[in-house]
């Protein structure tokens, strides 16, 4: 996963650390690829919800190809999932579909890219066979003397690639408007409860498939038909997590504080700093390439796995 870059259109903010739906963008992407045998994050070290291996391109800020090469040095897997760290709507099922398409394509397919609704390739939301990646990166390094600053299209143009269309998984947060749109979408399009439960489980350190319909029916019956969905479900998760730790008032108190902290962060997103685009940060700086780091339009040069 590539989690570096200057985030020029965000005024230099630490983009992977921005919160969407109570979780950082980086943690959201890490959650989508939790089944990976080994996870390498290329970029500055940051707190993460699960353990990862860190790597850094040299020099720092050398762009996506340099970052990708740095990450590949830490994996021996036959297939490499390459993801940017600013994908709020990426889901595990999409990741599994990318990997399955690589297998289905056989030896004639060296990778599968996600295609956005406009049909544009997303080379940093993709699964690649590792050896072709190593081969082409080595050839580019020899040809240009360095991978630093080179655009992703130089790599993808040399690979035999399949495409997997998806309506929203490639949505990325390059600007403050993108961040605000992602936060609003999570709250307003019917996914808010699922998003909250996922965030709460991650915060509490539990992995549990919650039958929300049954629990909400029970809550409505107990409350004589008055439903406050997030409250009973969150309380249930706190109790479950406390039981996993052996129970007791200390466990309940600690986990309740965590859930309260998550709820406060959730609420602050709509009102606190970064909730709307700060003045002067709504567009690209003069002369800045889209996404920074010298990539071409349609490329993403900041983040992958």
From TrEMBL:
<keyword id="KW-0808">Transferase</keyword>
<keyword id="KW-0460">Magnesium</keyword>
<keyword id="KW-0501">Molybdenum cofactor biosynthesis</keyword>
<feature type="compositionally biased region" description="Low complexity">
    <location>
        <begin position="278"/>
        <end position="288"/>
    </location>
</feature>
<dbReference type="InterPro" id="IPR013482">
    <property type="entry name" value="Molybde_CF_guanTrfase"/>
</dbReference>
<keyword id="KW-0963">Cytoplasm</keyword>
<keyword id="KW-0479">Metal-binding</keyword>
<dbReference type="InterPro" id="IPR025877">
    <property type="entry name" value="MobA-like_NTP_Trfase"/>
</dbReference>
<feature type="domain" description="DUF6457">
    <location>
        <begin position="189"/>
        <end position="270"/>
    </location>
</feature>
<feature type="domain" description="MobA-like NTP transferase">
    <location>
        <begin position="2"/>
        <end position="137"/>
    </location>
</feature>
<dbReference type="InterPro" id="IPR029044">
    <property type="entry name" value="Nucleotide-diphossugar_trans"/>
</dbReference>
<feature type="region of interest" description="Disordered">
    <location>
        <begin position="266"/>
        <end position="305"/>
    </location>
</feature>
<dbReference type="InterPro" id="IPR045598">
    <property type="entry name" value="DUF6457"/>
</dbReference>
<dbReference type="GO" id="GO:0016740">
    <property type="term" value="F:transferase activity"/>
</dbReference>
<keyword id="KW-0547">Nucleotide-binding</keyword>
<protein>
    <submittedName>
        <fullName>NTP transferase domain-containing protein</fullName>
    </submittedName>
</protein>
<dbReference type="Pfam" id="PF12804">
    <property type="entry name" value="NTP_transf_3"/>
</dbReference>
<dbReference type="Pfam" id="PF20058">
    <property type="entry name" value="DUF6457"/>
</dbReference>
<keyword id="KW-0342">GTP-binding</keyword>
């Amino acid at each position: 996963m590539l989690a570096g870059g200057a985030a020029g259109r965000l005024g230099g903010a630490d983009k992977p650390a921005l919160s969407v739906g109570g979780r950082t963008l980086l943690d959201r992407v890490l959650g989508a690829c939790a089944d990976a045998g080994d996870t390498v994050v290329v970029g500055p070290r940051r707190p993460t919800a699960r353990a990862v291996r860190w790597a850094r391109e040299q020099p720092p800020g050398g762009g996506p190809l340099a970052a990708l090469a740095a990450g590949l040095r830490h994996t021996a897997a036959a297939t490499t999932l390459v993801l940017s760290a600013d994908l709020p709507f990426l889901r595990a099922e999409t990741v599994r579909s990318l990997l399955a398409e690589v297998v289905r394509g056989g030896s004639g397919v060296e990778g599968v890219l996600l295609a956005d609704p406009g049909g544009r390739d997303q080379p940093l939301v993709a699964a690649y066979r590792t050896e072709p990646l190593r081969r082409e990166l080595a050839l580019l390094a020899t040809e240009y003397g360095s991978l630093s600053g080179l655009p992703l299209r130089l790599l993808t143009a040399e690979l035999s690639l399949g495409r997997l269309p998806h309506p929203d998984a490639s949505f990325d947060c390059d600007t403050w408007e993108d961040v605000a749109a992602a936060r609003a979408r999570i709250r307003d399009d019917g996914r808010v409860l699922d998003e909250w439960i996922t965030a709460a489980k991650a915060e509490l350190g539990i992995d549990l498939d919650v039958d929300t319909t049954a629990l909400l029916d029970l809550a409505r019956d107990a409350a004589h038909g008055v439903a406050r969905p997030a409250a009973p479900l969150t309380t249930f998760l706190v109790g479950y997590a406390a039981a996993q730790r052996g129970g007791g008032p200390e466990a309940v108190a600690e986990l309740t504080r965590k859930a309260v902290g998550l709820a406060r962060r959730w609420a602050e997103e709509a009102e606190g700093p970064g909730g709307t685009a700060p003045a002067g940060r709504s567009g690209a700086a003069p002369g800045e390439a889209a996404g920074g780091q010298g990539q071409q339009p349609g490329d993403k040069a900041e983040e992958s796995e």
